[in-house]
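[Solved] Which block belongs to which protein?

Original post:
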Amino acid sequence: MKKEGSLVLPGEIVAKSEELKAGKGTFEERGEIIASIVGIFKIDKENMEAIVEPITDVPLVLKEGDTAICEVKQIMDAMVIVKIIHIAGRKRQIAGEKDAAIHISNISNEFIEDIRKKFRIGDIVRAKIIKAEPAIQLTTKNAGLGVIKAFCSNCRNPLIKKGNNLECPMCGNVEERKLADDYGEGKLDRVIENGSENKERK
């Protein structure tokens, strides 16, 4: 079971169905209770329900330099469209739905022949905002930026890192991504500063 009080992302397993029932902000699938929103995991002990409460406060305005946690929604030949679901180090809710684009030239310092080998729909990505107005543009050109959580294209189980690729522990499927250097560690509030300096904002 996930530790109560943890910050969780959509698609993250928080408990087993034999431990808790699905409550607000969660759903049950294949015997697992899964977060449906980004927020704080809590347990309703009276009803034995898993709950994810959205982070609420003064709405957060996005700005250049912010480190964003995003979910991939659409993939095109020259760009990826993502939904920003959290800003690292900021315990506030984002003001409204925020879609953003990662152009193929801003994904990596290496040449990319097929953008679909770097991102898949449903991936959770850490990216930096390089332009906030009029349309939000992001980059993943940093070792600390890129996919931080991904799911198998065949069976939707979380993928684990094996060398430079990802592997499904259930079906053995191997996939490629533009990975952040801390893939799978769950560091949602790691802030990537300009250049190569990385730190976590308290």
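(Second protein starts here: sequence line, then its structure tokens.)
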Amino acid sequence: MFRQLQALKGMEVVALEEGRILGELHRAFLNTEKKKVSGITVHGSRFSGELGWVDVKDIVKVGEDVILVSRSAACRAKQPIGRSMQQMLGLQVATRAGKIIGLLVDLEVDEQWRVTEIVLSERRSVPVDKDAVFGQDAIILSADAASKVRRLARQRGLLARIFGRDAVDQAEDVISRVERSVAAPKVEQPQPPKKPASRAARTKASKKKARS
């Protein structure tokens, strides 16, 4: 299983033991030190409107249409652990060589919920190395990470199904423009030349100088 976290948003969460629909995946949370998903929040249950927490160890299977958790009790009222995916969207991704390679759009995880790839704007991705740092304001990768950036094929995930491919492309283009504006050096606008003083002003200045 290699899945992008944003594509999981809105999927139904079902308790395997009771066959009960607990709600929909609201947000995924990341343990930034371990670079691994810590759990998910579930919202909009038909039994209660409360927001529940499911630890990643209680997730049995991520299927094509639903997410299976072990039992209903696995979804409980608890403070989420880690940093939400929504809080990380738009973070700068830079290398240890000091080069900005893009802005975070999504994260790809493996079967153990470890982050394996960072999805960048303009449908690109870059692998996550073992020494990657997921910081408060930026993600720092190895010095040679820029050479490992690859182009992604167009995907038709959940966001595209809901809003349409064109809308998703437009959103990606907005992020790309922001990315380019951040990376572009600021150019100072030339100042217009000063107009020469008028004859009357020069005469007035001369008289003032003579009096002094």
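Accepted answer:
You had them paired correctly. Confirming on the second one: The first helix runs from residue 5 to 8.
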